[in-house]
UniProtKB/TrEMBL annotation, chain A:
GO terms for molecular function: oxidoreductase activity. It comes from Streptomyces bungoensis. Gene3D superfamilies: D-Amino Acid Oxidase, subunit A, domain 2, FAD/NAD(P)-binding domain. This is FAD-dependent oxidoreductase. Keywords: Oxidoreductase, Signal. Residues 1-21 form the signal peptide. The keyword Magnesium does not apply. It comes from the Bacteria.
From TrEMBL, chain B:
It comes from the Bacteria. The keyword Ribonucleoprotein does not apply. This is FAD/NAD(P)-binding oxidoreductase. Residues 6-332 form the FAD/NAD(P)-binding domain. The keyword Oxidoreductase applies. InterPro entries: BFD-like_2Fe2S-bd_dom (IPR007419), BFD-like_2Fe2S-bd_dom_sf (IPR041854), FAD/NAD-bd_sf (IPR036188), FAD/NAD-binding_dom (IPR023753), Metab_Enz_Cyan_OpOx_G3PDH (IPR051691), Opine_Oxase_asu/HCN_bsu (IPR017224). Keywords: Oxidoreductase. One of its GO terms (molecular function) is oxidoreductase activity. Residues 394-442 form the BFD-like [2Fe-2S]-binding domain. It comes from Streptomyces bungoensis.
TrEMBL record, chain C:
One of its GO terms (molecular function) is iron-sulfur cluster binding. Pfam families: Fer2_4. This is Proline dehydrogenase. Keywords: Oxidoreductase. InterPro entries: 2Fe-2S-bd_N (IPR042204), 2Fe-2S_ferredoxin-like_sf (IPR036010).
Length: 388, 474, 84
């Protein structure tokens, strides 16, 4: 019998789940209250990064995902979503910073990441500020245009029989023994389901609650700056080694350590701040100014370049900064796939493959549930199914 | 920076000038910011003060008596140190700050150099006006094709005409003063294509009859047009422009009431410049990020919702002029006075407009709004305008996205608003951030809803250097 | 009459005119090519909204010719690679 899967969320993670599940022959419906890729997916920079990941469960997922992005590119055409294996360049301004970066990179290399120490930064990145001590080049770092990628994945899923519904999920329908048999929509209709995938991103906490399987997913606000279009002047994703510390930080306040990169459209993206302010959408000009300072420090020529746009989004994070991917132990049939914080674009294909593997009960496209146990929702629960 | 202000007014056009005059009369200390080099906005655009004898423009203007009276009041207050007038300052963001507001601008008096300036005040009044609404057609991106507002700005601001044989097209009463102004400077205005139907006014005769001032203004233009033998062709549209490095001809056609060209009526007219405009788009870039409630306007635009005293839904924030609904200078002046009056009473100062004056201003505003509504209904965007487009017609001028690409985003990409089209095609992602193509892309995707522009957190480009300096100031 | 320098050539203007007005007064309505299709562009909206009229002024790129007042001796370069 064909497994009926409802994927909640038409962002990049939901699209990847639908793509893989449909590819595995499942009967897939994707539901979202809004348009395709209109949430956090459209508010990022399209990062596919290995460089910022500590060895551990997230890096394992990221390495698989990097391979899967390549495969998806081959299958759907890399140009259709601007897949660009541009590489990342992490730089350090002090001898201590560089030593720490090298030590970090060595551990990543041991976990299978390609690294290449760089001493003459300007040979790699001609307009970078002189006077930096050195850096590490991560050739596997890449970029996609996230909304195009999401649309391409969903189109491919639809070609394999998936359907797209616009509407809000208000609850789960459960049968005997607490097993999900469908989701109830806002309009009252019920979509039958053997499994429901919570790919609601930053809103994954709320969707989990409605499905009777709450997980803690919180918003972390980020601003991204966009400059005027220029000829190619920044070749890689360039950031300071401080970035890694900020990504992993749990501080409540503002943290900025910018990533600077060019895009296919000619604009330069400068991201991104991290603030825990709930879903507060107001403009924070101090944050924008701070990002500008840091970008100009890395690339002094940017002082003369115009900012033409800024946007902000809300990254979904779990308290331990790892995504939650796998079956919920409390409600049979609910599978979580959210909480990717700022790495959702990069991690989407592997997340989709891993969710599909969980649903199949066997490995799928290199994703083996037994190899990614660190991402399971079980880690949040002690007993009785209540969040810790 | 001088003494703190009681209110910041962004915009020094008719609404901003009137607001400043009333606020100053009530004893408030006012900071007024405008990107232009002189007060007056678009309607009363003038060359900078020092250049007015070299570039005479008085004969191109209407309502100059009011302009001069307001200018005088502003200039006296400035001398007395009660008005902090910041010309050539471009505001890129306005945010709430504590109980008040911070307005972030760049000072470009010494352009291209720019430096960051931040103003603070407990109250903010936004009177940022509007710009021409455009509908693409084949060849609209050829050099020599301008917005009618652009033709007017060159004329009023620089005494310059962009061509010697000009065709104008679009819809709305603004076509007429531009035609008259060009003709007054020796330009041969070969045709004025008004897509609307003049008889449409008759469906709303009362607002027109109740505005004798508009009659006089209209009669003035009509006289100017007759004197220069300019023919206004109703129910006609410019459907294409031809040329290479510059426009050399337009194609015009009679159109049905839905805007679709009548077969067999197309003709070609040689020109060396073209002006087009389809009403206006209110400039809401500062107001939307501040979280103001919006409302629908009869001309198809979302506008800022205000109460009878021009208060927005955000406490301490007022709006006046075209941002609250396109309606022309007389309406803007009235709204400016009302907004400042509210700011005075809300801050515990004595009101300036006495009862009789207040009643009169309110009556003017109500009358002008009714007139604007009648005008909007008589000059709609024609429903079938997109039938002029071919798949190759450029819709987004900045990123050069074609009508075909926009249509594909809707049919194959499932896009159903201009934001999604932007994500899928880059239409609206370029320098102008969709200010030119936004209304058109909106019409191509969801014709029957009002146009709400994309949220723009950065209202005008600002160099990263100026932003970095702002960080160091903080 | 004062002059600005456009791509190395002197262009007269009347004090108070913008760079765009000076160019238009000299009969020029295009001075830039677009990034993607290399089409000619110049002044369109005339009020700083459309960014068609971008030029480089005294070395600073991305300047709207329709907003910047011409000043004697100002060096304007048009068609800079990457403008718009």
């Amino acid at each position: 019998m064909t497994l009926k899967v409802v994927v909640v969320g038409a962002g990049v993670v939901g699209a990847a789940c639908a793509f893989h599940a449909a590819s595995a022959g499942m009967d897939v419906a994707v539901v979202d209250r809004g348009p395709v890729g209109a949430g956090t997916t459209s508010r990022g920079e399209g990062n596919i990064l290995l460089s910022d990941k500590e060895p551990g469960p997230e890096l394992d997922l990221a390495r698989l995902s990097r391979t899967l992005w390549e495969e998806i590119g081959q299958e759907l055409g890399p140009a259709s979503f601007e897949l660009e294996p541009k590489g990342g360049l992490v730089v350090a301004g002090t001898a201590e910073g560089l030593a720490a970066l090298h030590a970090f990179a060595a551990r990543q290399a041991a976990a299978g990441v390609h690294i290449e120490p760089v001493t003459r930064l300007r040979e790699v990145e001609p307009l970078i500020t002189p006077g930096l001590r050195g850096g590490v080049l991560y050739s596997q770092d890449a970029q996609v245009q996230p909304v195009l990628a999401t649309a391409a994945l969903l189109r491919a899923a639809v070609r394999r029989g998936a359907r797209l519904h616009t509407g809000e999920v208000v609850g789960a329908v459960t049968g005997g023994a607490g097993r999900v048999t469908g989701v109830r929509m806002g309009a009252g209709e019920v979509l039958p389901a053997d499994a429901v995938v919570n790919a609601a991103g930053t809103w994954g906490g709320e969707v989990g609650r409605r499905l009777g399987a709450p997980v803690e997913v919180l918003p972390r606000r980020g601003f991204v700056l966009v400059t005027e279009p220029l000829p190619v002047v920044v070749r890689h994703k360039v950031y300071s080694a401080d970035y890694v510390a900020n990504v992993a930080s749990s501080d409540a306040g503002l943290e900025t350590s910018c990533v600077v990169e060019g895009t296919r459209g000619g604009t330069i993206l400068i991201g991104a701040s991290r603030e825990r302010v709930g879903f507060d959408t107001t403009m924070n000009t101090a944050v924008v100014a701070r990002l500008a300072v840091q970008a100009c420090r890395l690339f002094p020529f940017l002082r003369e370049v115009h900012l033409i746009r800024a946007y902000r989004g809300f990254r979904p994070y779990c308290p331990d900064h790892l995504p939650v991917v796998g079956p919920d132990p409390r409600v049979t049939g609910v599978v979580h796939a959210c909480g990717h914080e700022g790495a959702g674009i990069g991690l989407a294909p592997a997340t989709g493959a891993l969710v599909t593997a969980h649903l199949l009960g066997r490995p799928w496209r290199g994703a083996d549930p037994a190899a990614h146990t660190g991402l399971l929702p079980d880690r949040f629960f002690t007993s009785g199914g209540a969040p810790q | 920076m001088g003494r703190p202000s009681d209110i910041i007014i962004v915009g020094a056009g008719p609404a901003g000038m009137a607001a400043a005059a009333t606020a100053l009369a009530g004893g408030l200390r006012v900071a007024q910011v405008d990107s232009g080099t002189a007060v007056g906005g678009q309607f009363w655009r003038h060359p900078p003060q020092h250049a007015r004898s070299a570039i005479p423009t008085d004969d191109l203007h209407h309502g100059l008596r009011e302009y001069r009276a307001l200018s005088r009041e502003l200039s006296m207050a400035r001398k007395a140190g009660r008005l902090d007038l910041r010309l050539a300052h471009h505001v890129w963001s306005a945010v709430r700050e504590g109980d008040g507001f911070a307005v972030h601008a760049v000072d470009r008096r010494d352009a291209p150099r720019e430096s960051a300036v931040t103003l603070h005040a407990p109250r903010l009044l936004v009177a940022t006006g509007a710009y021409d609404r455009q509908l693409p057609f084949q060849g609209w991106d050829l050099p020599g094709v301008l917005t009618i507002g652009g033709l007017q700005a060159l004329l009023k601001g620089g005494g310059v005409t962009a061509g010697s044989r000009v065709a104008l097209g679009g819809t709305g009463p603004f076509l007429l003063p531009v035609a008259a102004g060009l003709a007054a400077r020796g330009v041969e205005v070969v045709t004025v294509c008004e897509a609307g139907n003049p008889l449409a006014w008759l469906r709303h005769p009362l607002p027109v009859l109740r505005n004798p001032g508009k009659w006089a203004e209209g009669a003035g233009y009509a006289f100017g047009l007759a004197r220069h033998r300019i023919r206004v062709r109703p129910r006609t549209a410019i459907t294409g422009a031809e040329g290479g490095d510059r426009v050399t001809a337009v194609r015009i056609a009679a159109v049905a009431s839905d805007g679709s060209p009548r077969p067999g009526t197309e003709r070609r007219i040689e020109v060396d410049a073209v002006g087009v405009g389809w009403g206006f788009t209110p400039q809401l870039d500062l107001l939307i990020p501040l979280g103001c409630d919006l409302t629908n306007s009869a001309d198809g635009n979302a506008v800022v919702a205000v109460d009878g005293g021009q208060r927005t839904s955000v406490p301490g924030l007022y709006a006046a002029g075209e941002a609250c609904g396109v309606g022309g200078a007389a309406l803007a002046v009235g709204e400016g006075h009302l907004a400042a009056q509210s700011a005075l009473t809300d801050s515990g100062s004595a009101a300036v407009l006495g009862n009789r004056r207040l009643v009169a201003v309110r009556a003017t505003v109500a009358r002008q709004r009714a007139f604007a509504r009648a005008m909007a209904l008589a000059h709609p965007i024609p429903a079938a305008w997109s039938s002029w487009l071919t798949d190759e017609t450029v819709v987004c001028r900045c990123e050069e996205v074609t009508a075909g690409a926009v249509r594909t985003a809707c049919t194959e990409g499932g896009a159903h608003d201009h934001r999604q089209v932007k994500q899928l095609t880059r239409a609206g992602m370029g320098w102008c951030q969709g200010r030119m193509c936004g209304p058109a892309v909106h019409c191509l995707t969801s014709q029957n809803q009002v146009y709400t522009p994309a949220e723009r957190l950065v209202a005008t480009p600002v160099t990263l250097g100026a932003l970095a300096d702002l960080d160091e100031q903080q | 009459m004062s002059e600005i320098i456009i791509d190395g050539e002197l262009l007269p203007f009347i004090e108070g005119q913008t760079v765009a007005a000076a160019l238009v007064a000299a009969g020029r309505v295009a001075w830039r090519t677009t990034r993607v299709q290399h089409r000619p562009r110049g002044v369109f909206c005339g009020i700083g909204v459309c960014f068609d009229c971008l030029v480089t002024i005294d070395g600073a790129g991305g300047q709207r010719a329709c907003l910047v007042p011409a000043r004697p001796g100002m060096a304007v370069t048009t068609g800079r690679d990457g403008d718009g």
